[in-house]
Amino acid sequence: MTETQTYRCVHYTDHVRCTTDATHRLLDPYGRGSSCDIYCREHAQAIMDEYWDKFGWYWTMQPLEEEL
Ligand SMILES: [Zn+2]
To answer: What is the dihedral of CA 18, 45, 31, 35, to 10 degrees?
Structure first.
C-alpha cells in the first residue's frame, strides 16, 4: 500500500499533532529551510511571533505551493 505524500502541519500542542494541512515552510534569517519545518498558517505565524518575542529571531514564511 502506497501512502500518499501529504503535507501536514508538524506543530504539536500537548503531544497532539496539529491536523491541519501545512501551507507554509519557515525559513531562517539566512533563507534556509528544513524539510520538516512545515506548518499551517496559524502555527507558522505563532512560531514567528514567539521566536521574535523571545529571541529576536525572525523566521520567514514561504508558501509551500511555490516549491511544487
Ligand atoms: Zn498547525
So the answer is: 0
pTM, entire model:
0.79
CB-based neighbours (< 5 A) of ligand 1, an ion:
9, 11, 18, 20, 40, 43
Distance separating alpha carbons of residues 67 and 62, to the nearest angstrom: 9
Residue 15 CA to ligand 1 center (angstroms) comes to 13
> How far apart, in whole angstroms, are the C-alpha atoms of residue 46 and residue 54?
12
Predicted local confidence at residue 36, as pLDDT: 76
Exposed/middle/buried for 16, CB within 10 Å: 0-12, 13-18, 19+? exposed
Tell me whether strands 33-39 and 24-27 are parallel, antiparallel or unpaired. antiparallel
